[in-house]
Amino acid sequence: MKKYIKIILILFLFYFSKSFAANNTKIYQKIDLFSEVLNKINNEYVEEIDQSEVMDAAIDGVLQSLDPYSSYMSPEMLLNMQTETSGEFGGLGIEVSMESGVVKVISPIEDTPASRAGVKAGDYIVKINNVQVQGKSLSEAVDLMRGKVGSDIEITVRRKGVKKALTFNITREIIKIQSVKSEILEGKVGYLRLNAFNENSSNQIKNKLKEIKKNKSVKSYILDLRNNPGGLLSQAIKISDFFLNEGEIVSTKSRNKSENKKFFAKKGDVIDGKTLIVLINYGSASASEIVAGALKDHKRAILLGEQSYGKGSVQSIIPLKNKGAIRLTISKYYLPSGKSISEVGVVPDIEIAEETDDFKINTESDNQLKFALKLLNE
Predict the structure, then answer these.
(1) Radius of gyration of the chain (CA)
(2) pLDDT, averaged across the chain
């Protein structure tokens, strides 16, 4: 194993030799140390280990030391991820990241096992089936949560403001994301709820808007992005563009200035300048924040709800020779105002705390939606 590890690390060093030229001695010392540690594990750890899994964990550890969103994906994980972005997959229905060695829920997806059980954005998953999560990589924790459809899983979470740990028993399901729901409220308000930014979202939004516009009594719109964990950047740009006539939507800044990009709206507001309210909460992240932030900066919409999550970076899926991939943060995105939302989030124009976890269209129990409708009636 020691020889195998050294070969891998020396090849790694050779590939990056230009960057490391000044520090070759220190790097070789670290290679020897790393090789020694793994050799000790292989020979002396209390249980026999799978050498391949150890190397995967080492690769993942390097990536996760960079930020909570970079990670290694085995071929199986990559296949699962590709299924998720197409809108149907198996699991609990939560978007997660790693924070301080614990899995943090970015957002539960509406009408999935996790959301129905009561899991909330910001929850920290500390145990999965009585297995401690702390010390495990994000990919290891995700693997623990995966299982056969119909099988049960118990997760234990810590929630801000709640002293005791909360335990949820959840049955895994095939997660079918209907990314867009729509309704006409009070006979004159077009309501659209966007649950995720997958490859079909912009087309679904466009079709729903066409249906709503057939009703000539519709005078205003509500775009609901609460508990939307994000998804594809391209979809965030297209959906923002639907409501803007011109101007910058978002810019991305990378390590290489030549790769910095700006994305602009094309002429044509599909709702013809009618009043638009956007609902956000702590579970609104990533692509949701791009849309909400762009519409706020252009004063095209009133943002109502709670401060968003604050995931202001772009990850690229980079394929590997083993048919797996790495998810790597390649740039950060900035709103038209020039502000980054990384770890800060988007602040609503009107802050209204949510009083319900039920995001079904309910104008009676949903405090934020009720306030938005009141505002549109004034």
Answers:
(1) 23
(2) 86
| Interval 282-307 mean pLDDT | 96
Structure confidence by residue, pLDDT tens digits, 9-54 = 554 554 444 444 556 677 778 888 888 888 898 889 998 888 888 8
201 and 279 in a single domain? The answer is: yes
Could you say which of 137, 286, 288, 308 is catalytic? 286
Q: What CATH number is associated with residue 161?
A: 2.30.42.10
Beta strand residue intervals within the chain, DSSP E: 71-73, 88-91, 94-99, 102-108, 124-128, 131-132, 152-158, 166-171, 173-176, 180-185, 189-194, 220-224, 248-254, 261-264, 275-280, 302-305, 313-319, 325-334, 350-351
Same domain, residue pair 220 and 340: yes
Check 136, 311, 313, 331 and give the catalytic one.
311
And the tokens for 223?
């775009």
**Active-site residue, from 202, 297, 331, 366:** 297
Residue 287: name the closest of 359, 154, 195 by CA: 195
Enter the pTM of the model: 0.73
**In terms of Cα–Cα distance, which of 140, 161, 132, 333 is closest to 240?**
333
Q: Are residues 163 and 183 in the same domain?
A: no
Question: For tokens 């466009």, what's the residue?
Answer: 206
Which two three-digit tokens encode residue 255?
Answer: 């390590």
Segments forming the whole domain that contains residue 143: 88-175
Q: Is residue 323 part of a domain?
A: no
286 a catalytic residue: yes
Residue 253 sits at the vertex; the CA angle it makes with 249 and 254, to the nearest 5 degrees, is 145
25 φ/ψ angles, rounded to the nearest 5 degrees = -60, -50
The winner for highest mean pLDDT among 119-123, 172-176, 236-240 is 236-240
Based on the fold, state whether residues 204 and 135 are members of the same structural domain.
no
Residue 78 pLDDT exceeds 90:
no
Number of H helices, E strands in the chain: 11, 19
Query: Residues 209, 213, 219, CA angle at the centre, nearest 5°?
Result: 110
- 74 vs 234, which has greater pLDDT? 234
Total count of domains within the chain: 3
Listing DSSP states for 164-196 in one string gives S-EEEEEE-EEEE---EEEEEETTTEEEEEE--
Here the CATH number for the domain that contains residue 278 is 3.90.226.10
| Same domain? 248 vs 349 | yes
